Amino acid sequence: MTAMRQVATRPPGPPGARPVLDVRDLRMRYGTNDVLNGVTFTAAPGEVLALLGPNGAGKTTTIEILEGFRMRSAGEVSVLGTDPARGDETWRSRLGIVLQSWRDHGKWRVRELLAHFGSYYAEHRRPWHVDELVAAVGLTPHAHKKVGQLSGGQRRRLDVAIGIVGRPELLFLDEPTAGFDPEARREFHDLVHRLADESDTTILLTTHDLDEAEKLADRILILAGGTIIANGSAEALSREMSTGAEVRWTRDGQRYVHATTGATRYVRELFAQYGEEIEDLEVRRASLEDTYMALLRKFEGGVR
């Protein structure tokens, strides 16, 4: 079965807490083309959201509006209690942004660069201690290297460090682990969990890696046709779509596979019939990728 972040029972922020993100009927039009057509969602303190969707669905436009870099055509948007179209420097200091491409600071040394960026936040917030931050993103052995000497994966870690140097309340991650090897990806996932669970950082990430989204996100938002077509945990979306599971087992040396939408009931019936003859039982539930593709097919088929 797919490993998932075990946070489903954690309340999304304290009772009555104001949403970190509150997006209502967000619309964006370029000429006669509606890129966003009524996007609505919220995010609570400490919640990790994954914004998924095919290329051209409007993910980048949505993120840029929330970050205050693009004006919307219509709708109401509140980010940390402020309309991003009117956010000032104090408001912006509460955000962290990790873009897809790394910044070209090739002549700086890693530690010096992070100390430099951290100094920008000193007036408004308490930034990470530079050595603690370098360790958190796994760059301690490279702290005194010039940025231009880093590998692609190491540069990506530096991007992440720059994005969180100011201890943001809200962190935007755009394809955060592009170029990471498996070990670096695991370490980064641990860091995301720590930021959300220990620092109450709200995180909105976009990724094409659906396995990563399933591991990291409390809630999945699927954007298609300029609107949110699905909003819920990976498990809840799978249940909503009645996406089946595979039950696999061995009996008398024979291997069996059965597809079902009621795995628990089927396993109970299996044991009632065969008891201890059942060996090597395994239940494989639908992955987020299965659910994602099913939701897109349903949307494209005109089923709402």
Q: Compute the average pLDDT.
A: 87
The CATH topology label of the largest domain is: Rossmann fold
For CATH, the homologous superfamily of the largest domain is named as P-loop containing nucleotide triphosphate hydrolases
Describe the largest sheet: 6 strands, mixed
Summed up:
With 304 residues, this protein is of the alpha/beta class. It has 10 helices and 12 strands. The strands form 3 sheets. A 6-stranded mixed beta sheet has the order 5-6-7-3-8-9, with helices on both faces.
Essential attributes:
alpha/beta; Rossmann fold; 12 strands; 26% strand; 304 residues; 3-stranded antiparallel beta sheet; 10 helices; disordered N terminus; 2 domains
Describe the protein's architecture and organization.
- Residues 271-298 form a coiled coil.
- Keywords: Antibiotic resistance, ATP-binding, Coiled coil, Nucleotide-binding, Transport.
- GO terms for molecular function: ATP binding.
- Residues 21-250 form the ABC transporter domain.
- A hairpin with a 2-residue loop joins strand 1 (21-30) and strand 2.
- The protein starts with 20 loop residues before the first strand and ends with a helix.
- Residues 1-11 have low confidence and may be disordered.
- Helix 3 (110-121) crosses helix 4 (130-136).
- Helices cover 33% and strands 26% of the residues.
- The longest helix has 17 residues, at 182-198.
- It has two domains: 21-238, Rossmann fold (3-Layer(aba) Sandwich), CATH 3.40.50; 240-300, no CATH class.
- The strands form three sheets. It has a six-stranded mixed β-sheet with strand order 5-6-7-3-8-9, sandwiched between helices. A three-stranded antiparallel β-sheet has the order 2-1-4, covered by helices on one side. The chain has a three-stranded antiparallel β-sheet with strand order 11-10-12, with helices on one face.
- With 304 residues, the protein is an alpha/beta fold.
